[in-house]
Amino acid sequence: MKNKIIVLSCFLLMAMITSCHSQNKTLKVTNSKECNSKDGYWYQGKCWAEFEDEGIAVKDIDSVVQAQIQLIKQASVKMNNKSYPLEFFFPEQDEGQIILIASFNKLQDNILFFTSPKNVEKGGKFKAEAMYLKGNIIEKDEEPIPVGGGQMTVIMNDDFDISIEGTLKGDTASYDMSLKANEAVIGAGNSELQVRDGEAYLSGTLGTVTYHQVKDLIRNHPEIKTITFTQVQGSVNDAVNLHTGRILREAGLNTKLLANSNIASGGVDLFAAGVKRHITKGAKLGVHSWAGENITADQLPEDHPAHQYQIAYFTQMLGKDLGPRFYFYTLSAAPAEDIHYMSEKEIEKWQLARD
């Protein structure tokens, strides 16, 4: 399986479970009141049609995260009567089918459920072929080993609450399996923020849990001044990730990359929040565009409301002039399904290192 986790972004999700759904249409009205009456979104003096604002207000972020954390805790996997927390759950679209990726047991056990976009969109009860893999499918250096497979029964409601059960059969054993998941798990991420010897180290995929971890670090470890990013593959919840960066900056924390650090997409966004940012020679920083349903970010005009929160974020982190320009640079650097690793000259140009 290709390692696509570093480029996880909204384009991989169906419209029913994405926050990146955007349209490049405006209505011919002259004021916000008239725009609202036509169910439009008033922004930059224009009335944008079919745009849904998925941003989270500062006053709401803590309650939103707390509610999502509670839902995340409800998700679980049971294998031969042994229960595990569901550590990673994400739908990926590949060659006309949807693959639901579920990982547990410290990401060493993975089940891939294969179904059609039509089934996911329709919901209800349907069958899905499944494959049970041993080994970390997120790390590109590991090759997972198939140990079983079979047909599973999936029940999915309109809120993307999912239950899956069935038996996976291998050459030497069978595995009775059941899974419960929900939309909150998709945006949870699997990041780890560890404090060792007076320093903090961040790794994994960013999401809701990362905000919770950084907030806990700020509250309970005032002695920590720097977060070192090791392997950060990206973000599965950009709306929350922007707030994670905000509280990191407001707490006066610095960020650091080691010579073997590899960060991408939302990982670069979060790294940019450091008051001081140290990049050791050899570290890799990957950027790319994002995409929504049938449209990519670079196809949207710069005054489109879909850009507003990223523009505000990078303005805070990199300045009024450099911030917005860096954001639009990332959109042109590589398409959503690819990644561009910045050169030393590009890192210097965009002032990502700030000692």
Automatic annotation (TrEMBL):
Domain of life the protein comes from: Bacteria
Keywords: Signal
Secretion signal, residue range per the UniProt entry: 1-22
Protein name per the record: Alpha/beta hydrolase
Native source species: Leptobacterium flavescens
